[in-house]
Design a protein that fits this description.
Shape: rod-shaped
Number of helices: 3
CATH superfamily of the largest domain: Efflux pump adaptor protein, beta barrel domain
Radius of gyration: 47 Å
Strand order of the largest sheet: 2-11-14-13-12-15
Strand content: 35-45%
Largest sheet: 6 strands, antiparallel, barrel
Structural class: alpha+beta
Distance between the termini: 70 Å
Number of domains: 3
CATH class of the largest domain: Mainly Beta
Number of strands: 21
Helix content: 25-40%
CATH topology of the largest domain: Elongation Factor Tu (Ef-tu), domain 3
Order of helices and strands: HEEEEEEHHEEEEEEEEEEEEEEE
Oligomer: single chain
């Protein structure tokens, strides 16, 4: 058990020990900082300048034309000849569907056509024979009528002649109808053959244009029906950067407007133009989509991240050299020269314009900003300003 003397003595002892340990060390550190040679720096005055008003939006690359290639007939999928990332040419076969049932239907249609065509000569002969009988019946009828008018034959004999004429006419019309039926059967068979040939052509799923396969949606052995997706292909050489833009900029952005685009995957910036401005706003984000037409770039694909820079004239702003900014993750800092010491200052930076950057807060006009600060520069360190 601790005595009361021990309990009272311990705090005083600890305090004396801390004071004794810290005093000389602190003085020595401060003395070393004061004795260290100043860091040579160059400064630039923060000033109000007139610079282009810039706005940066981010988005992703999308193909102007994307097509989902689907089956147009029913059958088992025999082959899928592409993989995601493959380049395809217009008319290239993407997949093959089993068309044996269609081929059977085609043969049946062709057989029906041949049967109808084979019956046509006989039908033609029937028409000729029926016409001959009709001609004979008409000639006989004319004679019998003349005789009847002269009262040389009885009424019954004339009625029999009229009956034979009507029968001959009916036989002739029937022969002609049969011939027309055969023509219709041949036409129907031709249409059936053409339809089966068309259906057979659907057995090969082909690419409608040159492009890149971005998704494979079917595998061999699957049963396809009309509308079953097989693969997704995007047209090559026609891409857009679709960027989300704040609704406050809607009135300033128009189709044909010149912009600058930077694609991170290519580490390249180039000129482009706005191709389309979406007419509808997103109610949730209060933004709208701007589609910027991109030039042809080898290896460009959908999904590539990009930035688009819009310029809306000029305005006055507080600006410093972009080289004066120090980035600590998401935080931007500057070093300001105050007398013979450097002072670290957190600031809010806006869009960069050339070699200058706008400062929205954390700095005032006229303050001296250290340009290209050395890595050894820290808050409070002594500095020597040099030209």
């Amino acid at each position: 058990m601790f005595s009361s003397k021990t309990l009272w003595a311990t705090p005083a002892t600890v305090l004396l020990a801390v004071l004794a340990g810290c005093g000389p060390g602190t003085s020595e550190s401060a003395k070393k900082a004061e004795d260290a040679p100043p860091v040579a720096v160059s400064v630039r005055k923060a000033s109000i300048v007139k610079l282009p008003e810039l706005y940066e939006a981010t988005g992703s690359v999308r193909a102007r034309v994307t097509s989902v290639l689907s089956a147009r007939t029913m059958g088992s999928i025999l082959e899928v000849r592409v993989q995601p990332g493959d380049s395809v040419k217009a008319g290239q076969v993407i997949a093959v569907i089993d068309a044996r049932d269609i081929e059977t239907s085609r043969r049946q249609a062709e057989a029906g056509r041949r049967e109808a065509q084979d019956a046509q000569p006989e039908a033609d002969s029937g028409v000729v024979a029926a016409k001959a009988q009709l001609d004979l019946a008409e000639s006989s009828h004319r004679r019998m009528k003349s005789l009847f008018d002269d009262k040389s034959i009885t009424a019954q004999e004339f009625d029999e002649a009229e009956a034979r004429l009507k029968t001959a006419r009916a036989a002739y019309e029937m022969a002609r109808a049969k011939r027309h039926q055969l023509d219709s059967k041949v036409q129907q068979a031709d249409e059936a053959v053409a339809q089966t040939k068309l259906q057979a052509s659907y057995a090969n799923v082909i690419a409608p244009f040159a492009g890149t396969v971005i998704e494979r949606k079917a595998e061999p052995g699957m049963l396809a029906s009309p509308g079953t997706p097989i693969a997704v292909v995007e047209q090559g050489g026609a891409y857009r950067l679709e960027a989300s833009v704040d609704e406050s900029r809607l009135a300033k952005i128009l189709p044909g407007m010149a912009v600058r685009v930077h694609l991170d995957a290519f580490d390249k910036e180039f000129a482009a133009r706005v191709g389309e401005v979406a007419p509808a706003l997103d109610a949730g984000s209060h933004s709208f989509i701007v589609k910027v037409d991109l030039p042809g770039l080898q290896g460009l694909r959908s999904g590539v991240f990009g930035r688009v820079l819009f310029e809306f004239g000029q305005r006055e702003m507080l600006a410093v050299p972009a080289s004066a900014l120090v980035h600590d993750g998401q935080i931007d800092r500057l070093f300001v020269a105050e007398g013979d010491a450097a002072r670290s200052r957190m600031v809010k930076a806006a869009t960069r314009s050339g070699d200058m950057v706008e400062i929205l807060s954390g700095l005032s006009a006229g303050e001296l900003v250290i340009d290209r600060p050395p890595q050894t520069l820290t808050d409070g360190i002594r500095i020597e300003v040099r030209p």
